[in-house]
């Protein structure tokens, strides 16, 4: 795994101007591989290659685009064991997560958008009867709305899931006839280069897919500000998204932003506590809490508050933390030493703010943890809405619990909704209640891009994206095809 990777530009594997940097295994702190450091000029060259390829690829019949995506899915499936090993090594994900939620999801997304390439792009519009006037004689005007590719798309991916996140951008973009420049997260770019190699083997034409990487912020900046780029699709922090949005605004570039989250999990007195604990508890284990959709901010009605806290503490206590390659490991490391320190600083901040550390709060002990960026699953109770640990995204295995009261069922609903919406974020919230009508009523009032009712599960055809500072636009399913296309109106006389 330690061989040097090259940039992928215009169908060629190109040596990087800036040399290479080490990609570190979060579990062992050993070197996984050497990733290329692109120069600003090389990033712009990748965008130019994508621009040159766009004219041909955008006119390629949908059936041919679908075939390329389908073959890519087959290649990734064939080599999925080695790809999962790579994902585990550079992200710190457990073997089960790397196989089932990273590589397997990438396969599913290429297969989904192989079919998506064949979805109709035309929508017939009702004819309009026009009276005679300055625009011409009276007549019936027909019209059709057609979705066209945007052009060159820069795809900037997140570190928590390089396979699924990159595939979720590249596959629908290619299906619609766009060409792409992919800039993976600096912590784990090797998986994205492996995906590029799979696409090359699948027959993607030169320049249609380009991959550039680097630790310098200038690499990402060049991928955004290149005059050849028409759209930026970004997954990452709100702060970085805001800076990207400023550049896109100056160039009138289309944006798709999936940013931070601080998912509220409302738990009413009549909730199934076992189900609520199991759902909220995924924050402790799934990607070690490094996921924007996690129900990290629990808003619990007083009648179940103590039992819910006890249940979550017991749940966290049973989770095995350790080597992500071990069969019984549930919680692996976070991505880096810097991020581990950041998560720990939030836990300490919560303690100073007055939160009660029910469980966790430090690093796991034992000889097996001499190396690795591990954080023990942590539960903070007795939190107040104005605490920073309640308001800010921690992005680690940390859950905060805020109690609420309500003299009547109606008052309880109003209080819970107000607490949930008192946030800069609005990606995905959750409602647990035995009264399904109440759960749907509350869900409909939450300012959030998605709401899980008595579940943390997802429907992968449902639109995904956020309100407020959690993002701009929607993707997943057919919504992604719309996100990577522009609507064109064609009008004619009947």
TrEMBL record:
Domain of life: Bacteria
Domain Aldehyde dehydrogenase: 13-489
InterPro entries reported for this sequence: Ald_DH/histidinol_DH, Ald_DH_C, Ald_DH_N, Aldehyde_DH_dom
SUPFAM superfamilies in UniProt: ALDH-like
Entry keyword set: Oxidoreductase
Single GO term (MF): oxidoreductase activity, acting on the aldehyde or oxo group of donors, NAD or NADP as acceptor
Record-stated family: Belongs to the aldehyde dehydrogenase family.
Annotated protein name in UniProt: Aldehyde dehydrogenase family protein
Source organism (scientific name): Streptomyces alboniger
């Amino acid at each position: 795994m330690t061989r040097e990777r090259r940039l992928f530009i215009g169908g060629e594997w190109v040596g990087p101007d800036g040399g290479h940097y080490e990609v570190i295994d979060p579990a062992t702190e050993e070197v996984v591989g050497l990733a290329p450091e692109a120069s600003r000029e090389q990033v712009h060259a990748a965008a130019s290659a994508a621009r040159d390829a766009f004219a041909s690829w955008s006119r390629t019949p949908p059936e041919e685009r679908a075939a390329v995506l389908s073959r890519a899915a087959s290649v990734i499936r064939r080599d999925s064991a080695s790809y999962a090993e790579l994902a585990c090594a550079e992200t710190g994900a457990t073997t089960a997560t790397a196989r089932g939620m990273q590589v397997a999801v990438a396969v599913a997304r290429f297969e989904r958008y192989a079919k998506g390439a064949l979805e109709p792009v035309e929508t017939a519009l009702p004819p309009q009867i026009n009276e005679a006037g300055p625009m011409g004689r009276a007549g019936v005007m027909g019209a059709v709305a057609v979705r066209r590719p945007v052009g060159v798309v820069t795809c900037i991916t997140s570190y928590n899931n390089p396979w699924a996140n990159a595939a979720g951008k590249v596959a629908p973009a290619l299906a619609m006839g766009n060409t792409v420049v992919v800039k993976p997260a600096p912590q784990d770019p090797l998986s994205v280069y492996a995906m590029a190699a799979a696409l090359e083997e699948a027959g993607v034409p030169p320049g249609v897919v380009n991959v550039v990487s680097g630790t310098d912020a200038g690499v990402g900046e060049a991928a955004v500000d290149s005059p050849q780029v028409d759209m930026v699709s970004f997954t990452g922090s709100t702060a970085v998204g805001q800076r990207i949005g400023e550049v896109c605004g100056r160039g009138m570039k289309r944006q798709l932003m999936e940013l931070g989250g601080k998912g509220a999990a409302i738990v009413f007195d009549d909730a199934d506590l076992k189900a609520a604990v199991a759902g909220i508890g995924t924050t402790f284990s799934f990607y070690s809490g490094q996921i924007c959709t996690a129900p990290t901010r629990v808003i619990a009605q007083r009648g179940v508050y103590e039992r819910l806290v006890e249940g979550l503490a017991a749940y966290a206590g049973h989770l095995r933390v350790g080597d992500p390659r071990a069969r019984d490991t549930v919680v692996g490391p976070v991505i880096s030493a810097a991020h581990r320190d950041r998560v720990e600083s939030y836990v300490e901040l919560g303690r100073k703010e007055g939160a009660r550390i029910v469980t966790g709060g430090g690093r796991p002990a034992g000889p097996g943890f001499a190396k690795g960026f591990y954080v023990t699953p942590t539960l903070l109770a007795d939190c107040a809405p104005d605490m920073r640990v309640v308001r800010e995204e921690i992005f680690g295995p940390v859950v905060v619990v805020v109690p609420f009261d309500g003299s009547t069922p109606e008052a309880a609903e109003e209080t819970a909704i107000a607490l949930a919406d008192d946030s800069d974020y609005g990606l995905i919230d959750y409602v647990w209640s035995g009264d399904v009508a109440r759960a749907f009523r509350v869900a409909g009032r939450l300012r959030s891009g998605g709401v899980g009712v008595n579940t943390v599960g997802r429907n992968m055809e449902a639109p995904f994206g956020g309100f407020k500072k959690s993002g701009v636009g929607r993707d997943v399913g057919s919504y992604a095809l719309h996100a990577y296309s522009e609507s064109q109106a064609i009008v004619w006389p009947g």
